[in-house]
Amino acid sequence: MNLNSGELTESKRVIEYLNNAIKLQPDYTDAHINRGSAYIILGQYQLAIADINQAMRLKPDDAYYLYYNRANAYSALGLYQRAIEDYNEALRQKPDDILDGSAYRSRGNAYAMLGQYQLAIEDYSKAIQLRPDHAVAYYSRGTAYSKLSHHQSAIEDYNEAIRLKPDYADAYYNRGYVYLNQGTTTIWAALMRKKRVYLETANY
User: Fold this and answer.
1) What residue ranges define each of the domains in the chain, with the CATH number in brackets?
2) Contact by Cβ (8 Å): 141, 174
3) What is the pTM of this model?
4) Which of 80, 82, 104, 79 is nearest to 92 (CA)?
5) Cα 165 to Cα 8: distance, rounded to the nearest angstrom
6) Whole-number pLDDT of residue 171
């Protein structure tokens, strides 16, 4: 996450205030939760995890957001399997994913990073069911389809992502890349024929 100087200063100020609150009351659960969220914003993921762990010890029940936030921190650190375990627990507690499919989409991202594209597709599909207008979920599912060489499904998802977000440059790029990799586009086939004719003529 790229923060401007004002946002960076504000996040640091929030942490300073929360530090004081925790110093006065070490078992202040909400202070640990909010400080953990602030650390995530600043990209200080290990510190975020430490605060979330403490909040879990203080408030073990109904910890959906805590598991979700810790999963995001693990994912940012490249600890995708641990992230998946936390997303699993968050979704066990709230299977309808009250964050409009964000937990399913984030778990899908973790699966994709581990090369488990079919599981990623299943999660992206659940995210889309919960929020049909989510362009990023279509884009992510399209990318997973592309990795499995399901070219037509990938193109359809990129089309939908572009329909929902007409300025989605990455979706345009990836759609073009899939067309290229299909090996059936007229332009690409024509270029290969021209190259072959040129080589045959040159070697004659």
Assistant:
1) 115-204 (1.25.40.10)
2) no
3) 0.82
4) 104
5) 29
6) 96
